[in-house]
Amino acid sequence: PQNQTPSRESYYLTTAIHYPNGEPHIGHAYEMVGTDVMARFQRLDGHDVYFLTGTDEHGQKMAQTAEREGITPLQLATRNSAAFQRMDDEVLDISYDRFIRTTERDHHLASQEIWRRMEAAGDIYLDRYSGWYSVRDERFFTEDETEVREDGQRYATETGTEVTWTEEESYFFRLSRYQQPLLDLYRERPDFSGPRYRFNEVIRFVESGLEDLSISRTSFDWGIDVPAPAEGSGSRPTQDHVMYVWVDALTNYLTGAGFPETDSEQFRRFWPADLHVIGKDISRFHCIFWPAFLLSAGIELPRRVMIHGFLNNNGEKMSKSLGNVVAPAEWVDRYGLDAVRFFLLREFSFGADGSYNHDAVVGRKNADLANNLGNLAQRSLSMVAKNLAGAVPEPGELTAADRALLEAAAGLLATARADYAVQDYHHALESTWAVLGDANAYFAEQQPWVLRKTDPERMATVLYVTLETVRRVALLVQPVMPGSATQLLDLLGVEASGDAGRTGSSGAGPRSFAAWDAALVPGTVLPAPRPVFPRHE
Ligand code: ME8
């Protein structure tokens, strides 16, 4: 039909769903920010984005924690799930579309449907499991993946968590069947996961051989019921089975896309997912089990799994016993949300492990934000206010220096698109700040405050070129610092696009990248300038 706006391309992305057995910590916050920045970038770049996050509420860990606290697992999940949601809404300004809880009904239906499909494919059989299980990791270990320590207890070597001997009737998934199909997938789609060095670890693991996977539990009941086996499908269970928590957890990504309603608008639009963002400790679940389940169930595979590193406190692992667990809200109170978001994305690359401490955060806040960006904007805007009646100046003829800076700034969007495609926010920001460095050098060299007396026309050109550069930078840092970037764009008199996404934090709201080349219009009267990036005192 006519008069319809062309439909935008869809973009579906997810975080891991977090265990609500405790309060969220800064590691969780890191993953939220590293996914939110991608969601905002894609919206500004014209995509129809669906962003899923939530909590992973079943399993033995939840059941045990609840028992210790003398409440039901659902009470525990409900209380802490709310804390995660509060962090997203009130502390981090996360622009998610749905916060899923795995105790929700549609998720139970989705999980049972994927189970039935895997069973129908002949990939599920009943047997007995005997081996080691880590409740903390919700993960099975073979004996040679464990060790007995001085205290006489047995621990998982890789994660250092205690394991307990488990012997029970269990359903198994024929993971061994999928070794070759997975290796083919990794070869055919080298960007299926990143960064490369973390993806390579997964590939090496698959090359070393895959054993079938225990996918149900009988020793407790806090989980999704395994559907009754199809008629005439081998041996009958002697006990009630609930799904192994990871089967249900991974399926949340399908639930969010409307599965099992595969004919629905939502599913057709958003499946396969474009991006799963997860941490390095759960890469095998996402790069091995998840595609194997989907291949078995005859469902298209997600396009990419981005494996981020861990965030450590001052080089040390965060832990309650070390007393160095930082609550995200404390951090944001101390430094401000945008400074925290900027620090997390600028300081280290998303795939690598990173460490934070007070001096490092303050260094970024003062040098990169207050000085390089804030000061440049404030100085040029103040000169315009004082000397040019607060209107965007009319540029005269451009010099080589003017053109070089304008071209460097114009090229930033293409760089950012390439970087965001592989979640290299660090490089995108590094490139942006390199241009800001050029802009500061340009401003110092051109000395517009001297030109004010000697050559006012040239001053106007220098101020125009500077503001135009600040405009491009402000547009581009919106996903990272939505609040401050919006304020800056307001001060530059840049019109809001209205259609660039639903989360405007303040002022006129987000400006779509469609306006990338819409240069500042000379004569536009600007609001009175005020500093946007305060120094940390
Ligand atoms: O693993 N730094 O939940 P979770 C950065 N429910 N990221 C960290 C981190 C740190 N210090 N600590 C944890 C689970 N993470 C499962 C996921 S998905 C279908 C099910 C990351 O609450 C971790 O790597 O233990 C994971 O991606 C996320 O936080 C949730 O961890």
UniProtKB/TrEMBL annotation:
Signal peptide residue numbers: none
> Gene3D superfamilies of this UniProt entry?
2.170.220.10, HUPs, Isoleucyl-tRNA Synthetase, Domain 1
Q: Name the SUPFAM superfamilies on file.
A: Anticodon-binding domain of a subclass of class I aminoacyl-tRNA synthetases, Nucleotidylyl transferase
Q: Which reaction does it catalyse?
A: tRNA(Met) + L-methionine + ATP = L-methionyl-tRNA(Met) + AMP + diphosphate
Q: Where does the protein principally reside?
A: cytoplasm
Ranges for the Methionyl-tRNA synthetase anticodon-binding domain?
A: 392-495
Alphabetic keyword roster: Aminoacyl-tRNA synthetase, ATP-binding, Cytoplasm, Ligase, Nucleotide-binding, Protein biosynthesis
- Chain segments annotated as transmembrane: none
Q: Name one GO molecular function term.
A: methionine-tRNA ligase activity
Record keyword Nucleotide-binding present: yes
Q: Motif 'KMSKS' region: which residue numbers?
A: 317-321
Enzyme Commission numbers on file: 6.1.1.10
On assembly, the entry states: Monomer.
Family, per entry: Belongs to the class-I aminoacyl-tRNA synthetase family. MetG type 2B subfamily.
Outline what the protein does: Is required not only for elongation of protein synthesis but also for the initiation of all mRNA translation through initiator tRNA(fMet) aminoacylation.
Protein name listed in UniProt: Methionine--tRNA ligase
Q: Which organism is the protein's source?
A: Citricoccus nitrophenolicus
